[in-house]
Amino acid sequence: MGGLIEAVLGEGAFLPHGVCLLWSPALLTLHALSDALIAGAYFVIPLAILRFLTLRHDFAPSYRRVAYLFLAFIFLCGLTHLISLVTYWQPLYIIEGGVKALTAAVSVVTAILVWPILPKLLTLPSPQALEESNAHLKREIQAHVETLRQLNDSRADLERRVAQRTRELIETNQRFEAALASSDVAVFSQDRDLVFTWSYDPHGLWPAREVVGRTDGDTLPSLVSQEVVRAKRTVVEGGRGAAINIEVAAEDGASQYLRLSMDPLRDDAGEIAGLTSAVVDLTERHDYETRLSALTSSLAEANARFDLALRGSSISVFTQDERLRYTWVYNTPLAPDPSAIAGRTDAELMGEDRAAALIAAKRAVIEAAAPRTLDFELEIEGRPRSFEMRLEPIVALDGRVTGLAGVAVDITERRSHERHLRLVMRELTHRSKNLLAVIQAMARQTAARSDDPKTFVERFSARLRAMAASHDLLVAQEWHGAYLPDLVKAQLAQAVDPGSEQLVTEGPPVSLRPDAAQNIGLALHELTTNAAKYGALSVADGRIAIRWRLEGDRFVLRWEERGGPPVEPASRRGFGVTLLERTVGQALDGTVSVSFEDSGLVCEIVIPASHLLA
């Protein structure tokens, strides 16, 4: 045992390493100091690596194992140099060999384990790359900070807008309720199963008071509910609005007429979630329409008697505005075409000197607002003719005189046939009174066709505006004519934008002469008014096609409606149809046909091509 210890400690036959250096102080100092410094460095480096591994917990286990082996390898290298330092004075060669063997084993294992992870180590970013990544991260952080600021600003703006929209919604709801509170309108909403989900019925128009959670079958009579449910199912399944009229019993047992307008209700995804319904009380309107129908029939009879009385007679009837421009003429001896007189004055037709007395009499009627009868002579086609004229002021509802109406009777034959003329005069006087009564009745019936004076004024004013629109185009062309596409746009502007998809116009570029422009303009106005109330323009999906063409010596203008409510021929002829088929057609020596097709109203106007400008 003692011999082993002596061998390990180098005692015995081994000499210290200093002998090899001949115990040179300089060499010993050089080697000893170098080994000491190397050993110290090898001992310090593992401490740094160990500190690094302690702080970096993100290293993978494989990296960490290699790092620990590398740490052991460096430590053993330092220990080897330390023992080498001792061997200069003490021959510890066995210990030195053992430490070197252990160092060799650890180094070999470390080398083996380092090679597989070397490619991964090479992928680690360089300091420059880390610097660039750090700068990039800083820029991204700054961008995120800016984005966060913008998001905060957007959120604040969104909150402000939401608050504003909330206030607007509250105000709109208040206005909505205020509007409905003063009108005979009720509003309801239902889901796809037609269960009422909301209602607003301040006047109790719906037969049932409490409807939320109930269906139409629970709130309406059986037959009525079947019709209503059928219509609502069509709206929900087809996605298009509809309207029907229903009759129910009011609380007092009388019939109540309601207009039910239905539109699909869509959710955020655009899917139909139910429908909304607006109910309008039409009872009063129904009563008005019943009376209006009777009055219209009477008016049609009076109009027929008027035509029968004047057809082929020597009686002329006319109206003039406050500036004495003719606005309507019937059976005039001045021209075969009454449209040649419309819009003109007596001075323009007869000359200022010959018309001076007549103009003075007419001005006196307007200024005094009193009727007047006078005799008047006029040379027509080189032959003097005598007329007895009755003038009466046209007084508006506000008491203002807006023009005059006149009846002129040709009394030329009376001078040569006195007795016969007396009989004729008595008959003419009687007829004149009847005609004046007819004219007054027409005015009354026109007013009766309107629900109120305001409606009468609006309808009458609308026709005046239609004529004014045609006149504006004629004035712009110095009364040479009017460009037909411009005339169409002007007359339809009251109901539809010329660029709208609801309107299609097609035809060659033609211009109408003044008379044709005025009458075609009036026809377009009547058709537009009818379409806006009852036809294609009364619904969003309605379409109107206006096409015109030349066929030899004829000019054809066709008005065709599509997509409007179902139409059927009227049981009576209103002013609009009469105006189109008689006044407009006859005034232009043409024909006007109006038909009620399944797809909508169709009107075709055919006039001589001579009414077009060359």
Automatic annotation (TrEMBL):
InterPro entries: ETR1_N, HATPase_C_sf, PAS-assoc_C, PAS-like_dom_sf, PAS_4, Sig_transdc_His_kinase_HWE
SMART domains associated with the record: HWE_HK (SM00911)
Recorded catalytic activity of this chain's protein: ATP + protein L-histidine = ADP + protein N-phospho-L-histidine
Keywords (A to Z) from UniProt: ATP-binding, Coiled coil, Kinase, Membrane, Nucleotide-binding, Phosphoprotein, Repeat, Transferase, Transmembrane, Transmembrane helix
PAC domain: residues covered: 242-294, 367-423
Annotated TM spans: 36-54, 66-89
One Pfam short name: PAS_4
UniProt keyword Repeat, yes or no: yes
EC number(s) reported in the record: 2.7.13.3
Keyword Disulfide bond carried by entry: no
Coiled-coil regions listed in the entry: 134-175
A GO molecular function held by the record: ATP binding
Top-level taxonomic group: Bacteria
Protein name: histidine kinase
Species in which this protein is naturally found: Prosthecomicrobium pneumaticum
Organism phylogeny: Bacteria, Pseudomonadati, Pseudomonadota, Alphaproteobacteria, Hyphomicrobiales
